[in-house]
Amino acid sequence: MGVPAFFRWLSRKYPSIVVHCVEEKGKEVDGVRIPVDTSQPNPNDVEFDNLYLDMNGIIHPCCHPEDKPEPKNEDEMMVLIFQYIDRIFSVVRPRRLLYMAIDGVAPRAKMNQQRSRRFRASKESADKAKLMTEMREEMITKGCHLPPVKPSSERFDSNCITPGTPFMFRLANCLRYYIHDRLNNDPGWQDIMVILSDANVPGEGEHKIMDYVRRQRAQPNHDPNTRHCLCGADADLIMLGLATHEVNFTIIREEFKPNQPRPCDMCGQMGHEMKNCEGLPKEMCGEHDELSKPIGNECEFIFLRLNVLREYLEKELKMDGLPFEYDFERALDDWVFMCFFVGNDFLPHLPSLEIRENAIDRLIKLYKNAVYKTGGYLTDSGVVALDRVQLVMSELGTVEDEIFKKRRDDEMNFRRRTKAKKERERRQQNFRNQGGLLGAVPIGQGGAASSNLRAQAYQMRKQNMSTSNQANTNAATELKQLMGGKKKDEDSDEEPADDVRLWEDGWKDRYYSQKFDVDSDDIKFRRTVANHYVRGLCWVLRYYYQGCASWKWYFPYHYAPFASDFVNIGELPNDFEMNTKPFQPMEQLMSVFPAASKKHLPPTWQTLMYDPESPIIDFYPINFKIDLNGKKYAWQGVALLPFVDETRLHQGLQSVYPDLTEAERKRNILGSDKLFLSIKNQAYSFFEALYEGGGPQTKAEAAQIETTHTNGMGGIVWCDSLRVETGGVVMSPLDALEDLTDNKTICIQYQDPTFEANHLFEAKTLPGAVFPGRVLKPEDFNQNNRNQGYRPQLGFQRGSGYRPRGSSDVTAALRMIRNTTGMQGQGFVMSSQSMQPSYVPYGFGGGGGGGGGRGGQQYGGNQGGQQWGNSSNNNAWNSNMARQQDAYSTNLARQQNVYRPIPGSSSNSGGYGGGGSQGGVGGYDGGRRGYGDRSYGGGGGRDGGRPPLRGGYGDARGGRGGYQRREDNYQRADDRRSNQHSNRGGQQDRYRPY
Question: pTM of the full predicted structure?
């Protein structure tokens, strides 16, 4: 899960780290779908070597999506997972390795968070089901029409996505089939190796990946210029990627788009929440059937370039005048360490540090002061110098009181502004309802907007609906009045209860008294909590840099101490118990599952969760308190669950272990990774020889990999009992998919290279590593306007420092030109100097589309032709077309508060899509003023050459880019909707943030 809001903060502070992925789509010819040929050069202008998939980030959205109806059954879920992997593979196109890592058994420190999430989800599901039952009964009584209730046995319990369940065991089998299929049939897969680390292999998915990277880096034949790409949405992946010190490390993730529509939980329709549900219309037939459910928009992917983040941090962390040589790699590790204080998966964040309050910037200032004073860094390859951390905490402790008071002032100001805004909106709505300026317009009298065919079709549908729909609405309205007291108003301005009141004197005494139930003057207890927290910081850092230091350690409190409670921490031990072992998968299930998810466990194990005589019944409370801890919503609160006692758990399970069936025993073992490769891979003969010679059958007999065959990848291998022989049949685990005949893929068990228990993986860049070319320009570091110079872009464009391996590929270059709307790293919005000649050559393309018209609806918008010597090659420079993404309009700088003006956006500018109020000046020919029919905006400038060709989409109608209504600020980019601010016909330079 990582740090809440960390990625949002990071991408706003360092905007150039994000670029949008270029994704080629499959085509359909004569009804036959032609998939993307992933063996072709990557359209993102970069060739990756290794792709790592944090699989749980793929499994969850495929099995229980939030923006579309759920899959009907497990088979559909598996197919959706396959398709998602195909998309990621098509974008990244790894050339050496694909690593799929599913979460296995986690360390105890992580289990506490998993336990909290699963119990909370179970409680919320039960509360929601109860409310839905009550609402359903009353809605049906009042005449509402609703879809049939799905039997509880068919409802998907997302808690089953946990190691040891039948679902995860089946998923592993399905992925084995999928890997065989792609290696046998997909040209883009046939030269790569695939590692599958399923749920029986202990460790969190992302940390299994990091263990692999860390251990490969320590191999003598490792390529220091390997290009890594890690897929996952957790914020901690950013810190993990930086901690590798690999110079070419990129993260790919879904682009987050807030406020996406979700289907109603009651009726399944889009457009409203459950609390506003009015039921389904009576079932209709033909073209007006309203029961069809819209499917959510396909997500888009972004790259997060860690090499660019390193550039930002190199500037941010620079310290001059140190009494020793400055080492950025050490300072980078210290930055990663400081991020732990604002939150991670294993420790609660310190009360005085909130990411939204620029806590990391505050820590950086304190950190630099500490480095100057102590003459050294805070960390070294995962080991913490606690005496130096003490100085940072002491300095932070002196300003905690000030931080809490300022936070309170900010909250009260925000609450006042929000209340005033709601009051304004209420008054405006009342004005509209009373027939104000924006009152309803009868159909047929709305001018251009009313002529929209889609709007007419909608009005016809409304008129043709049966009268039962009105009865449905009336019944629902009546029901809402009856149930008014049953549903909490989430928009309430009521202040959440807070007995601690950190902004008032005596806050520390109240905090320990309320949260820990100890005497307010128990100073010794405060030191104990702080010491445990310090141990946690040491454990987390070692976990990131060296691997799991202890499977048993965990932080034994629900709340963090204050910075001022860290006293004499330099004297604390910094080591952990050696050779600890992880839980078995089903032991973890018993540790993290609520009783409501017991169906995923063997029958006698289930009994321990609900039988009053169970020796561990107290581990599974049905009701538990959620402490809002000063927050507004329950999901932000702290679930006060009892911690699982490991000794008592194992004792309680001794009586039921003999009841496991053979299938259950297989699900309960700690397994190993599986390595797959095609017969076309250069290493195939090496692995095939192991089987032909009756090679190693157990891990104890494992053979070392000859790294000359595997691009330097080391490790040990032994035979897999589930291997399908060459020429054999791979049985399909899904009814909808066929068996694979004539298998040409080999599978073998694999383990990463091993090292001595006390081995230290050095946190440094490797000899021979070549840093990518620098991307950032001086204006990117402008502290007064840190977003200055930012250009949104698609893919790793030229100038980013990335190049394909070997000689340049003309085909890839041409593909990049076709698939991007910017060039040379300039992105969508060009600066006034970029690529602009000192004169306008004879015959160059038409001027920009006209500016906004005089009427209320403006179709102007800088969509000039911009044809460099070829009037048929419209690259749409500075246009609002946003060809690759609906959400990208020209002035989009989505993390910025001040948008950059488009050059030539006022009055008579021309040449580069200017288009002002009179139309852009194009070439040598001036723009036509003609405002056109229905006030579409100024005419586009003409071609500028001798033939009187139209500029852009110009002439009398202007460009048709940028469609705006005064009352709602909607914009259409290339006649597609884009919920961003319109550029208002190119007449405004500075827009308000939204």
Answer: 0.76
